[in-house]
Design brief:
alpha+beta, 3-stranded antiparallel sheet, single chain, about 180 residues, 2 domains
């Protein structure tokens, strides 16, 4: 019986450890005004960075070279002069997205970077430390000249789903051991 309790305790510790690592980032920037403290989701997946592509159609064509599915050229939304905010983690920044999208391209005057939007579809969350010095965000306080959003969003399981699955597995294990 003691072994079962130890296994269950260890299982719950591991389960809550996984859930905690899945929590999102929070805006921690006094310049953000009412947005300060907003949960912006998890870090989006960095896919590629390259030289400036020209226009929105060329950016989407460039992005298609890195993705499994083709994105329609007409499916892009462009937002200019995007303000980005510091989060509660160093080098991680967030900005509001215009529409729900599966991917976005961040552009400054010389470079573009492609990201997959993983969680909060209203926010783009990126780690500036993975970007080259050519993009210089936010090290030299350069602005994002524009963001191109496109693609169908993909779902990611939320932390409570992981916890629910874990509790279900522990319950099944417990029920089997009682027999």
């Amino acid at each position: 019986m003691q072994i079962i309790r130890k296994i269950m305790l260890l299982g719950m510790i591991l389960m809550f450890g996984l859930v905690n690592s899945a929590w999102g980032y929070v805006i921690d920037d006094t310049a953000s005004g009412v947005l300060n403290g907003t949960d912006v989701g998890v870090l989006d997946l960095f896919i590629a960075e390259d030289a400036k592509q020209g226009n929105t159609r060329k950016e989407i064509d460039w992005a298609n070279g890195y993705m499994d599915s083709d994105i329609n050229r007409r499916s892009g939304w462009k937002e200019e002069d995007v303000k980005y905010f510091e989060t509660n983690v160093s080098d991680v920044y967030a900005f509001e997205l215009v529409a729900t999208s599966g991917y976005y391209v961040v552009k400054n005057a010389k470079r573009v970077a492609l990201f997959q939007n993983l969680n909060s579809l209203d926010w783009g969350v990126f780690d500036a430390s993975v970007l080259s010095d050519g993009i210089k965000l936010p090290r030299n306080k350069m602005t994002i000249s524009h963001v191109t959003q496109f693609g169908i969003p993909t779902g990611v399981p939320e932390p409570s789903s992981i916890a629910l699955l874990g509790f279900g597995l522990v319950g099944l294990f417990w029920a089997r051991r009682k027999k």
